[in-house]
Amino acid sequence: MPLLPLFVNLAGRRVLLVGAGPVAAGKLAQLRAAGAEVRVVAPDVHPDIEAAGVPIERRGFRAADLHDVWFVVAAAPPAVNREVADAARARRVFVNAVDDPENATAFLSGVVRRDGVTVAISTEGHAPGLTALIREALDALLPRDLGAWMQEARRLRARWRQDGVPMSARRPLLLEALNRLYRRREPHDGVLDEAERTEQTLTATGHRTEAPWR
């Protein structure tokens, strides 16, 4: 079945990381960046995890480790991941099993973060290399002035909510507002290529408009 793309708020919530190798160290960095309270369970611990200052229990996984956790990442050998998945399923806890889609109910995607915008890509755990390539491509395609887009969108959203503008009317209005950002610029100021890329991105929404710099 197709997966449901979802962004979750883990700030201040307990997350269990089973395994403590180099790959687990990368997952730990992602979880901590999201503000999660991470506890690690593993018999052997990578120096990067040791230096992270998170609680560590040097032993094998126990089902009781899932008590009061919101999410679990299994970055251990397949047999251990399977044990974690079985215990998590019984407790209705989602588990990300690293490079082990058969034992996973959640997948950490390739992520591009810029200026308050997050774009996530998933191949449902079956092609992580392709996920990384697509992430790099999207990172190159996003406009360098995406922060200005975000600022304008936030400003207009507040006004539209106050004025009761329906959701269905907002997208074309936002498209026009973003195009107006480029009317304030001249082609010789070095943003022509950027503006052309922006037109391609905006018209991909299905609301084709005349390019403001022509």
Q: Can you walk me through this structure?
A:
The chain is of the alpha/beta class and 214 residues long. It has three domains: 1-108, 3-Layer(aba) Sandwich (Rossmann fold), CATH 3.40.50; 112-142; 146-203. It contains seven helices and seven strands; from the N terminus they run βαβαββαβββαααα. It has a five-stranded parallel beta sheet with strand order 3-2-1-4-5, sandwiched between helices. Strands 6-7 form a two-stranded antiparallel ribbon. Strand 4 (71-74), helix 3 (78-90) and strand 5 (94-97) form a beta-alpha-beta unit. The model is unreliable at 188-192 and 207-214 (pLDDT under 50).
Topology of helices and strands:
Elements: E1 14-18, H1 22-33, E2 37-41, H2 47-50, E3 56-57, E4 71-74, H3 78-90, E5 94-97, E6 110-114, E7 117-121, H4 128-141, H5 146-163, H6 167-183, H7 192-203
Parallel strand pairs: 1-2, 1-4, 2-3, 4-5
Antiparallel strand pairs: 6-7
Helix pairs in contact: 5-6
